[in-house]
Every structure is written in structure tokens, then in C-alpha cells.
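Let's practice the habit of predicting before peeking. Look at the sequence and jot down your guess about where helices and strands might fall. Then scroll down.
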Amino acid sequence: MLFTIFCIDKPGMAEKRASVMPAHVEYLNSLSDIKNIMSGPLMDDNMETIVGSLYILEAPDRDAIEDFTSNDPLVAADIWKSVEIRVFNKRVDNRV
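Done guessing? Here is the structure:
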């Protein structure tokens, strides 16, 4: 199944987020039961400030996604003010 995770940062998290990024990237690279289809930071309209995170992940079930999210170093660092997990039904693939 595909899932999206849409996360919005708490205000003023730029420095804290930057300090946690190496552990976060290592965590993403260590995944075995979950495939990271696409992920990256959400940006402000000027493309200057990170305001959150977006993931599209393939996982066996919601429990795996909730476990993934709860163990993310960004959660341990208390970066996000909100996290929304949704099942994603991919209908179009525009890859060449």
C-alpha cells in the first residue's frame, strides 16, 4: 500500500531541524519493510524556509507507517506540530 505523510513544523525549528537531519537521513536509509518512493521538505512560497515534510511511502500496512513515523528522529526532536497520514491511491504515473 502507498501512504502519504504530511508534516508541518513548529515555528522556529530551522536550527533544530538542521541538527537532526543527519540522524533522519540515516534513519530513512535504514528502512527495510518500507520503501521510500519520494520524500522531501515542504518549503515556504519563497523556497527559503523549510516548513514541513512530505513522504510517499510503500508499506505493508498502516501499523508499519505509524511505527516508522513514531521512530523518526524528527519526532524525537519534537520538530513537527502536526502529522497527517493518509492512504494514497496512485492513479497516474507520469514518469518517462
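How did you do? The two ends are 22 Å apart (CA to CA).
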